[in-house]
Task: structure prediction
Amino acid sequence: MSIDVVLQFNLKMVMKMKQILLIALTLLFFIPIPFVQAVETGILFRREVHGKLGRYKEGNAEKNEKYLGEINNGKPNRKRYTFQSLWGNVCRRV
Result:
């Protein structure tokens, strides 16, 4: 084998590797990752709306039970929270 044949073969392999790397990087940046969850901190009020009891972002602090802590997908995350009932009882877990 001559040197020219070996160099041409190596050059073709390098070009193929560049194409594969470019495709892989493009896929990495443009495909969304579904397992990432949004975690936010805020207040949810436990109240009844249209006969259904649930936790909502709007409410009255004097009339509704209040949850202060991490919220995952609109629901309270019970790992870290402060919960205050109507009677003033406060439960904290950090």
In short: The two ends are 71 Å apart (CA to CA). The beta strands are 39-49, 52-56, 65-72, 75-84, 90-93. Helices lie at 3-30. The chain has one helix and five strands.
